Amino acid sequence: MLQGSEELGRLEREGAAIAGTRERARGERRSREAKVGYPRHAVGTEQDVVRLEVEVEEVVRVERRHASGYAGEQTRVFPFDSARAQFYFLDIEQQNSSPASAITLYGINPRTGMSTASTVKGATGFVMSFVYHAESGKMFMATGSRSSTSFAFFTVNLETAEATKVGTVPRGSSESASAAFYAPYMSEVSADGASVLRLGYQEVTQAKGPGLGTTSIAGGTATWVEVQSPRGEELYYSMVRRAGKDSFLSLAPSTSLNHTFAVVEWTATTAAKVVADVPDAHPPQTGATGILGYVADMTVGQLYVALVVKKEPGVLPGLNDKWEVVTVDLGTNTATASALNGRNWDRLGAETVSISGVGVAASDAVASSE
User: Fold this and answer.
1) Of 33, 40, 49, 108, nearest to 76 (Cα)?
2) Helix/strand/coil (H/E/C) assignment for every residue in the chain
3) Beta carbons within 10 angstroms of residue 267's beta carbon
4) Taking Cα atoms as reference points, which of 254, 275, 279, 253 lies closest to residue 265?
5) Most distant CA atoms of the chain, gap in Å
6) For the chain, which residues make up each domain, given as ranges?
7) What percent of the chain has pLDDT over 90?
8) Residue 218, number of CB atoms within 10 A of its CB
């Protein structure tokens, strides 16, 4: 799913300037956020859902069918439920918000452009993060605030919007003393649903201790293990868990071709291995701002899919960069990469259109068997 404006032509002219303004206004460095495990990127009031193939065959406008609407800056990548073939996310109305504010579950069908909104029952307040859990078919959600001394965790039924509290985790005294200090900024949930995981730095403000935090939802205990990429490069830019397993797939900057991404597989206790090298795959960036936005990835069955940026030479740096779909058959460890084209996507630089998520329906996932 890609962010769009009312007209694709206007995006081409104004998108880069708008994105840059948002970055400066927020006063944040997105490259740091990605490693922290904080929410992701900005999404505007209008959105286009794109069915991703080698060529973009159709752009589907999302129709708002609810009163409240999702608007303003939405700084999270939308999880994709491959079984239901829908994107989902959770949020509150930001104006006059409080710990008692109602939470809304939004669903977006990329095939039809239809969207839904349901008030969550059983939970209120600020949504810190949410992660889709394939084994249960539910969303895990954390609530609280930056000043909270503890955080509440819930599961949310995507059919009924019923929230069930599964635990409260104390934050601890400081980021250096507590592995649970940033626990509500979830990257993943364990296969058994008992623990939440955060990839990033343990000491976020100091960018120290790159690794993985594992926090027991029911018990509140947390551990931190350091994680190193297989080639000693930067910490991973992404993390998705393989369904039914506690092994992860990540995009890691490699030493070849100006830090292009490699797809790596790893666990909390074993060394990472390179699954596939991608010749030209990067996060969106500009010379003025550095890393400007985010990549997105997901896995279903034996298929891994990522949306990254392919660099293209141009009169101005980044002007001709393109969004690129990377697919990896996890049975054979073979990868393909194809830049988006058609429907004006071959004319729009990647840095003018920020990403909101990527998904493949289970019925469309074709890869080798185990």
Assistant:
1) 40
2) CEECCCCHHHHHHHHHHHHHHHHHHHCCCHHHHHHHCCCCCCCCCCEEEECCCCCCCCEEECECCCCCCCCCCCCCCCCEECCCCEEEEEEECCCCCCCCCEEEEEEECCCCCEEEEEEEEEEECCEEEEEEECCCCEEEEEECCCCCCEEEEEEEECCCCEEEEEEEEECCCCCCCCCCCCCCCCCEECCCCCEEEEEEEEEHHHCEEEEEEEEECCCCCEEEEECCCCCCCCCCCCCEECCCCCCEEEEEECCCCCCCEEEEEECCCCCCEEEEECCCCECCEECCCEECCCCEEEEECCEEEEEEEECCCCCCCCCCCEEEEEEEECCCCEEEEEECCCCCCCCCCHHHCCECCCCCCHHHCCCCCC
3) 14
4) 275
5) 56
6) 2-364
7) 48
8) 12
Closest listed residue to residue 116, CA positions, set 65, 162, 70: 65
**Residue 275 near residue 265, CB atoms below 8 Å:** yes
Residue 357 near residue 82 (C-beta atoms within 8 A): no
Which residues, including other chains, have CB under 8 Å from residue 132's CB and lie 6 or more apart? 79, 80, 81, 88, 138, 139, 140
| 356 residue type, one letter | S
Q: Is the distance from CB of 12 to CB of 4 less than 8 angstroms?
A: no
Round to whole Å and give the CA distance between 35 and 182. 12
* Residues 6+ positions from 77 with CB-CB distance below 8 Å: 40, 41, 294, 296, 355, 356, 357
Q: Which residue from 175, 233, 222 is spatially nearest to 202, judged by alpha carbons?
A: 175
Let me know: does 112 contact 86? Beta carbons within 8 Å: no
**pLDDT, tens only, 47-60:** 455 554 445 556 66
Which CATH number is associated with domain 2-364? 2.120.10
pLDDT at 277 over 50: yes
> In the structure encoding, which two tokens stand for residue 215, read together?
């926090």
| Other Cβ atoms closer than 10 A to 112 | 12
What residue type is 67 in one-letter code?
A
Residue 292: count of CB within 10 angstroms of its CB: 23
Q: 18, 40, 16: which is closest to 28 by C-alpha?
A: 40
Confidence of residue 75 (pLDDT cuts 50, 70, 90): low
Amino acid in the structure at residue 353: V
Residue holding tokens 């073979």? 334
Residues in the chain: 370
* pLDDT tens for each residue of 307-321: 999 988 877 777 788
